[in-house]
Structures are given as C-alpha cells and as structure tokens.
C-alpha cells in the first residue's frame, strides 16, 4: 500500500489570478472546473497527471502572513541564460524578490503575487528531466526522520539522504523530486502550500489514512468540515491531505 503525490495545493485570496500566474510561470494551462484552479501540463486535462505534480490553487478568505512557508517549489532551468530569462519573465508576471536569509546564492528567490516563496534554480544536471518543477521542498528539523516517514507514506524511493538533505523521486525516474532540507526554526503557523496525496485505483482511502497514522501522522482540523478528503500533519507538523479517488 502507498500513496502518490498528485498536486501542490496553494491557498490564495484570488485563486484564479494566482492560478494564471503559475500556469504562465510553468508553461502549463489553468483549468477552473469549480471553485479551485488546477494548473497542469498543456495538452488537455489529465488528472492525476502520469508524470507531473500539478498545482491546485484554492480560494481562502484569509490573507497570508509574513511568516515564510515551510513548503515551496524549486523551478528548473537549462542554462544561465534561461535562468535570467525566466526570472525576468516571472517578475513581469507579478513575482517579486523575496528575502529569506539566503545570502549570496546562485539561485533566485521570488514570491508569487500573494507572497508564496519559490526558487528559480541555476541549471543543475540532476534536474535536467524533471519538467518545469525541479522539486517540492520541505523545510524541516530532521531530514532523515522526514525521509523515513514520507518514504513509507508514498511510493517514491529515496534517492539521497544526509543529516542536512533528503530527496525522494518517482520510481519511474520522472517528474519532480520531493526534498527535505534542514532549516533553522520551527513551524509556527499553517502553511499556504502543502501536498495532496491520492490512493492508487482500487486502494482503500480509509486504510491508507490509518496506515499514515500508524507511521506518525496526526489528524488536523483546519475547519474543513465534512469533506471527502482527510487533512493530516506529518511528524513535524507539515499539513497534507489524502484525497478521495474520483
């Protein structure tokens, strides 16, 4: 039994506008079948996408805080020129420079139009075939412990683990990485960004949720009420949802 990461959930006051930003940023398309705006690869709506991890922008009434999200996206580039061009294009779309204590680094830290941080990486060979999203990055205190939990939670095998960094990726070697980065500080407020997981066809959602609880996940009440998905937190308090198969 295992789950698969299918989308990054981003909360926004104006979900349609933030969805359009991310569609333009990633070179994907935006689709609003209801209250949320789903962003995925061009070529027709396929959900879950067999390769990519999509972005689902969900409207909420509360603005974000000034506290840095502990989950963010890293975007891939293919050359120094591509990195410069992408940063310039993103700023033209409404992204702004973000300062999260990064100092002098070869990547560029930006925020989307509602302040959600993300990074535009310098070209790295490891991300040459990920698509526009190189990695979903989670700040944490203990990458090894996070790798153990998430390695059991999802069907992505561990690709690297040290005291400071851990990375998982699809067993098929496609799509983005899921990375855990040792970062100072602790989680203090709910994130505006989290992962959504989905059972495989034929798997039982309730059994998967029970399995996650046995691994150390805890139930999370965000005021979601009676919904078909289940909100949980990992052992360090990062929110995530287990979706119902559709």
Automatic annotation (TrEMBL):
Domain VOC span(s) in chain numbering: 132-245
Family annotation (Pfam families): Glyoxalase_6
Entries under PROSITE patterns matching the protein: VOC
Coiled coil: none
Recorded superkingdom: Bacteria
SUPFAM superfamilies registered for this protein in UniProt: Glyoxalase/Bleomycin resistance protein/Dihydroxybiphenyl dioxygenase
Protein name, as recorded: VOC family protein
Organism: Streptomyces caeni
UniProt lineage: Bacteria, Bacillati, Actinomycetota, Actinomycetes, Kitasatosporales
